[in-house]
Write a structure and sequence with these properties.
- This is Stress responsive A/B Barrel Domain protein.
- InterPro entries: Dabb, Dimeric_a/b-barrel.
- Pfam families: Dabb (PF07876).
- This protein has one domain (about 5-45, about 55-155): 2-Layer Sandwich (Alpha-Beta Plaits), CATH 3.30.70.
- Helix content is about 45%, strand content about 25%.
- It is built from six helices and four strands, in the order H-H-H-E-H-E-E-H-H-E.
- It has helices at about 5-10, 10-15, 15-40, 70-85, 120-130, 130-140, and strands at about 55-65, 90-95, 115-120, 145-155.
- It has a four-stranded antiparallel beta sheet, with helices on both faces.
- The termini are far apart.
């Protein structure tokens, strides 16, 4: 057995799946903070938001569809854009299908569509959670979901 094959078969590698989730969630948080400030930086503006008493909330959602088809993924992304954009307190919004070309060992391949919303505060997140448009999105779309995984985390841009 080669050294690389032995490393793959180690107990640490077998536990890798749950660690990959942690890595994906952590990278998502870092990307959210970067993406939230990138447009202002490109325009020559100060990208640092005013300091708040509470951290921003990174709301990452990973949907696995009952029937994973290009049409089903496109429909869900369109529904995200229709119902989940422009909520009060939203700093950043993005939704899209899984990028299938990313297939390293650390890349989670068990979802079809991801949603990323960064809120300015927990209060903004909590208002979004019960907003009529958000609830309508769930009502309209949930029959199409095999699983939904939600990762909420506190984030702050680097200084």
């Amino acid at each position: 057995m080669s050294d690389s094959a032995a490393a793959v078969a180690s107990p640490a590698a077998r536990r890798g799946r749950s660690r990959r989730f942690a890595v994906v969630a952590g990278l998502s948080c870092a990307a959210a903070a970067l993406l939230a400030t990138a447009p202002a930086a490109l325009l020559g503006e100060d990208p640092a938001p005013a300091q708040s008493a509470s951290p921003m909330i990174n709301h990452s959602v990973y949907f696995t569809l009952n029937e994973s088809t290009p049409e089903g993924r496109a429909e869900l992304v369109a529904a995200c854009q229709k119902y989940l954009t422009d909520h009060e307190g939203t700093v950043y919004f993005a939704a899209g299908p899984r990028a299938e070309e990313f297939s390293r060992e650390v890349n989670d391949q068990t979802f079809d569509v991801s949603l990323l919303v960064v809120f300015e505060s927990k209060e903004a997140h909590d208002k979004y959670a019960v907003a009529p448009r958000h609830l309508e999105f769930i009502k309209e779309q949930k029959a199409n979901w095999k699983t939904v995984r939600v990762f909420d985390s506190e984030v702050a841009p680097s200084k």
